[in-house]
Amino acid sequence: MSTQEVELRSTIAGFTAEGKLHTLSVWFILALRLMMGLAFLQSGVDKVLSGEFSANGYLVNSPPANGSPVADLFVAMGETPWFVDFVNVAVPWGEILIGLGLLVGALTRLAAFWGAFMMLLFYLGNWDVGHGYINGDFAYMLVFLSVAAFGAGRILGLDAYIEQYDVGGRPLVERYPWMRYLLG
Questions:
Q1: How many domains does the chain have?
Q2: Over 70: is that where the pLDDT of 162 sits?
Q3: Which of 59, 151, 169, 172 is the most exposed place for a label (fewest CB within 10 A)?
């Protein structure tokens, strides 16, 4: 087994961060992708199969009760019937699609983005800073962002093959560079 290190370097707004990844890191990145995929798939399937998921009570009651800084926004969403109908479909089926995408490693960055977005909304809706601002919802949001940043779909995932799919004699991501934001 190889134990080489891979160097990383990134500069944002004039600040540079550097580090080295051990080649074993690939297994932990894969584990994060699969863990979040399974968690979201299971959560979505449970909601769909129970047939009891309804966002209305949560949106109207939980954020104001827990002191969320955006409670008024959640209440407004919960008092808008068409939006509640949308959320009642989008949350369980979104969780299923995000979970499937992560498990098979297809459209991984797109799935991870939407997973992070959902976790941000859960973080704001489940506001509880009694033990600090970092809770499970916030940590899961960062895991989703890490999965996207590391291109985890290329690790034993379909994105590695999709990116190289031949389109007019060139790999898909060379022909359509914007696809790198969805794949990987």
A1: 1
A2: yes
A3: 169
Residues 181 and 54: their CA atoms lie apart, in Å, by 32
Domain range for 114 is 5-181
Q: What tokens were used for 10?
A: 């990134």
pTM over 0.85: yes
- Residue 84 confidence class, pLDDT cut points 50, 70, 90: very high
Structure-token pair, residue 168? 């007019």
Query: Using CA atoms, how far apart are residues 4 and 122, in angstroms rounded to an integer?
Result: 39
